[in-house]
Amino acid sequence: AKTLSRSTEVATLATLLVTYHAWFVDLYYSSGTVYELLCFFFYFTALLYYVRIRQAGRWLRPAQWAWLCLLYLCALNAKEMAVTLPLFLGIYEFLFSPPAGLSGMERWLRQEFRGAFLTGILTLPFAIGKLLGAGSLIENPAYRPAISGGKFLDTFHLYLNPFFYQDHFFRDSNTAQLLLLMLVVALWQKSRVLLFSWTFLLLSVLPFIFLPHYAAFFLYIPSVGWALFGASIIVSLRKLLWRGVCSISVKLGRVKAPPGWPVGPILIFLLLACVLGIAHRPESLKTLAHFRSVQPPVREMTAELDRELPTVPARSRILFLDDPFPAGDYSLLFLVRLFYDDLSLEIGRRKSGALPPEDDQPYDFAFTFSNNRLTSVSVPRR
User: Fold this and answer.
1) In angstroms, rounded to a whole number, what is the distance separating the alpha carbons of residues 288 and 24?
2) Degrees to nearest 5, angle at CA 283 with 279 and 289
3) Model-level pTM?
């Protein structure tokens, strides 16, 4: 934010806005989202690395191109969300180093567009493999996109409601109106920072916006665009208000000139922190309760194992005639091996609760599960 806006105040407020969101609860409590966090880190590290070099008026040298590509590949390897980086390298150049009319477009494509072109080449085989390769994502109905303008707008407003802590406020109509208003403000202000953040919040959702399943924390990368746009607007309004207050004070003879110390930025920061704290608190309680309610009962199962079978010999075979985990889920296998710190353990599951046939290879331990309790049962032993 500071690199783009060249404003410490904008960067500070943007950081405050994006630091925490109650509906990003999975990012804070689930180890399964580590790849999202890695993608976020490498994505913005690559973007910042590129922008800083270009803002210094330099072209990337071969070694710097290699570093940029490495950072981008790390982001891609972490999560598919990173595929939009080439797009925003091109948008950045178009806004901050635009072509000199149609006559300068060819030169611009050869020079300024090189970053987007090079990273785009890296994206192409990745996208083909993900979409058309064996076991591709689109073979899974949950990842099969339905691409249309209506789907984009409908899904966009579904994400906006939890993002702004609303239930059903946003609909297709007022979502389109909000986006249009933001664009008008950016054009009226002639602000390249606002235009970049607007395109970022609008287009960084492309990797997931057409999918049939939703999770609020998917907005973890697009939220940076919202934060930068919001912080820039807040600072502009603060400056406008402060100039008005100082002008009135000078006319009334109260002060001769505006004070040199940053009273305005400090007050705005504290006010925004209070507003966010008030907004976050009830939503945090709600989302954390929801997160816990849908999590596998790992703690309960661990406590039962500790009570019934604190230790087991290596290479033991353990049978569960029932358990609280869904069929086809590997949580029980991982949990038991982690609990005993032994990868040699063999875990059997019979969700029907039926004992194994007599000719089946015997187990060392067997349990039933009922009313959140493990109970040891006898099975033929080796």
Assistant:
1) 10
2) 160
3) 0.79
